[in-house]
Write a structure and sequence with these properties.
The structure is a single chain. This protein is an alpha+beta fold. Strand 2 and strand 3 form a beta hairpin. Helix 4 packs antiparallel against helix 5 and helix 11 packs antiparallel against helix 12. The two termini are 46 Å apart. The protein is built from 13 helices and 13 strands. The structure holds a DNA duplex. It holds the Pfam family IMS.
DNA sequence: TCTGGGGTCCTAGGACCC
DNA sequence: TCTGGGGTCCTAGGACCC
């Protein structure tokens, strides 16, 4: 038996947690660069504001209904997420943190401790609400996919009071017969189109389709989905967070940028960020890709996209070393005469840092560079991002992303901590 | 004017091996 | 008429997730 705990409108709820005046009002959170809507309160959803909508297309609605806007601020969300996940770990031993706002719970073997799973889920909800003010919904079922379905109903139908358990076959069938196939976990817009063209509209219908057809058209992943709908688990709980196999850092510029010098500064910062992520998981990278492109939405302007992939002489996690190759790669693909929107770096082909083979002629230098990066990480963890950085990153960046509607840093900056009067 | 960022997995086909 | 059998590795493209 699996439980899925999902935070409702998570980013919006994080802001509401520290500002109760937002309760009951339409609130949205924007993507990086304040571009698109990535989270909405229920009141904003009721106004017809859809997920992924560009902000400039809904300015009328926003003005008319005084929708409150926030730029996204991941330190806050990450912090609140950790608090919620910590609470879940007090109730059950095995918690899979699936995303920033979702976790699967292994409820197998708890029949004696928690004979009433719905009551347990309600207790989880009220504890999370009291300690973090984040509202959550819980779905309970024999497989992860069915728990996702249960959660969907728990979140949307008030009568469930935030918790739905789907265990007996007739209840599962009834739920699946009402469940649109495109809402399923593992069905995106391409598969949804394919299924509809073949007359498959509900999750129940998909569960009844012949295995051979499903595997042929939706690969083995589709087959796993069908099995899970029939109550046979194919997706195990993953308790150890897997190490990443690639790391990409590529935020857009806050404005279009034509000149190489500015792009180089931005790239240096992206490389520093990517290398930090790499060191945090104790890996070194053997391959680096640098890419650069213009704004694809400006179809009247000349477009340019290019990338360069470099095999590094030996795997490394040193920012300065990666930066050396990144700069050369960028110079080889940069073209004058374009307005660029983004430069990015992708690290891949990882080796664990303790298996690392140093360069034949540069062994001790490698060691020193690795140590240097480690020291910088420690200083920056303690004193703030980029407090110590490479000069290549520049001193007053002009390319940074837009964040016009930042909230205070309630949990990560001393002067922003709320004062209780 | 204005349109996000960061990931994973699977498959088919080609190149190569003995 | 008729041309084997069994593998591995790599890549590009396509699907999905939050």
């Amino acid at each position: 038996m699996v439980g899925l705990v999902d935070c409702n409108n998570f980013y919006v709820s994080c802001h509401r947690s520290f500002d109760p005046s937002l309760e009951g009002k339409p609130v949205i959170v924007l993507s990086n660069n304040d571009g698109c809507v990535v989270a909405r309160s229920n009141q904003a959803k009721e106004l017809g504001i859809t997920m992924g909508k560009p902000l400039f297309q809904i300015e009328d609605v926003i003005k008319a209904h005084q929708v409150k806007i926030f730029s996204s601020t991941y330190p806050l969300y990450g912090d609140m997420s950790a608090r919620v996940m910590g609470i879940l770990g007090r109730f059950v031993e095995e918690v899979e943190i699936y995303s920033i706002d979702e976790a699967f719970l292994n409820l197998a073997g708890y029949d004696r401790v928690y004979p009433d799973r719905v009551a347990l889920a309600q207790q989880i909800r009220s504890t999370v609400a009291q300690w973090t003010r984040i509202p959550v919904s819980v779905g309970i079922a024999p497989t992860k996919t069915l728990a996702k379905v249960a959660n969907w109903y728990a979140k949307r139908e008030l009568m469930h009071n935030g918790v739905l358990e789907l265990t007996d076959p007739s209840a599962i069938q009834a739920a699946l017969e009402e469940f649109a196939v495109e809402e399923l976990w593992g069905v995106g817009h391409r598969y949804a189109g394919l299924l509809k063209r073949n007359g498959i509209k509900t999750a129940w219908q998909l569960s009844q389709v012949h295995d051979v057809w499903i595997q042929k058209h939706m690969t083995v992943n589709g087959l796993r989905l069908a099995y899970e709908l029939r109550g046979t688990p194919c997706r195990q709980l993953e308790l150890e967070p897997a190490k990443k196999k690639s790391i990409c850092t590529a935020p857009s510029f806050g404005r279009l940028v034509p000149d190489l010098a500015t792009i180089k500064e931005a790239l240096a910062t992206h490389v520093a960020r990517a290398a930090e992520k790499l060191r945090r998981q104790h890996s070194t990278a053997g391959v680096m890709t640098v890419f650069l492109h213009t704004n694809r939405f400006k179809d009247k302007e000349k477009q340019y996209y290019n990338s360069r992939t470099v095999e590094l002489p030996h795997p490394t996690a040193s920012t300065s070393e990666l930066l050396h190759y990144a700069g050369a790669a960028l110079e080889s693909i940069y073209q004058e005469g374009y307005e660029f929107q983004k430069v990015g770096v992708i690290l891949s082909d990882f080796t664990p840092e303790n298996h690392r083979q140093p360069g034949l002629y540069s062994g001790s230098l490698d060691e020193r560079l690795v140590k240097l990066s480690g020291v910088m990480d420690k200083l920056n963890t303690r004193h703030g991002r980029d407090k110590v950085r490479l000069a290549a990153q520049g001193f007053c960046p002009t390319w940074q992303m837009k964040q016009q509607w930042l909230s205070p840093c309630y949990t990560t900056r001393w002067k922003d901590i709320l004062v209780v009067k």
